[in-house]
From TrEMBL:
It comes from Desulfitobacterium hafniense (strain Y51). This is Putative restriction endonuclease domain-containing protein. The lineage of its organism: Bacteria, Bacillati, Bacillota, Clostridia, Eubacteriales. InterPro entries: Nuclease_put_TT1808, Restrct_endonuc-II-like, Uma2. CDD domains: DUF820-like. SUPFAM superfamilies: Restriction endonuclease-like.
Length: 183
């Protein structure tokens, strides 16, 4: 499928075509990416935004045994040596951020949560624009949930993996257009 212009994800043998994200979704991705870019500048890790194929294989020992390809909204890569000769990333991101869309909410909150946890991702942020919240998962090296926190309103999400990496929720959600009321 590399020759296709279609964006897709392959999870547990099922192909998901990706729709173009909405305006507010991209505003949120850009705001988070800006914070991440500034935090990681000059550090050994790097943050990148979609589209970027991330090849994961859960508990399997190689990709061919349990092939999964996802395009998270934002990834933090600390194993740049895993970029292959074709300039494709084949490592395990340390941190993944997904901004929910109505069409991907279930997949992001259940299917991808399980895939990221069993693949060795250490931290997963789920950004919910409708609820103006961030659900934060920390995973152990043994690939279990180590912590789960939901941040709302005037709170600040902080990464336990990257001390000093934090986002004050009003800074993020203040950039999102207020929803028009339909009375």
């Amino acid at each position: 499928m590399e020759s296709s212009d279609q964006r897709y994800e392959l999870i547990d043998g099922e192909v998901y075509l990706l729709a173009s994200p909405a305006f507010d979704h991209q505003v949120a991705v850009n705001e988070i990416a800006w914070h991440f870019y500034n935090y990681f500048k000059g550090k050994p890790c790097r943050s990148l935004t979609a589209p970027l194929d991330v090849r994961l294989f859960g508990y399997a020992t190689k990709f061919e045994e349990d092939p999964n390809v996802v395009q998270p909204d934002i990834v933090v890569v600390c194993d740049e040596e895993k970029v292959n000769a074709d300039n494709r990333y084949e490592g395990i991101p340390s941190l993944v951020v997904e901004v929910l869309s109505p069409s991907t909410k279930g997949k992001d909150m259940v299917t991808k949560l399980n895939l990221y946890m069993k693949s060795g991702v250490r931290e997963y942020w789920i950004v919910d624009l409708a609820e103006q919240s961030i659900t934060h998962y920390a995973f152990s090296p043994e690939r279990d949930i180590e912590g789960l926190t939901i941040f709302r309103e005037d709170e600040t999400v902080r990464s336990p993996l990257f001390p000093g990496l934090e986002i004050h929720l009003p800074d993020l959600f203040g950039e999102i257009r207020p929803k028009s009321r339909q009375d």
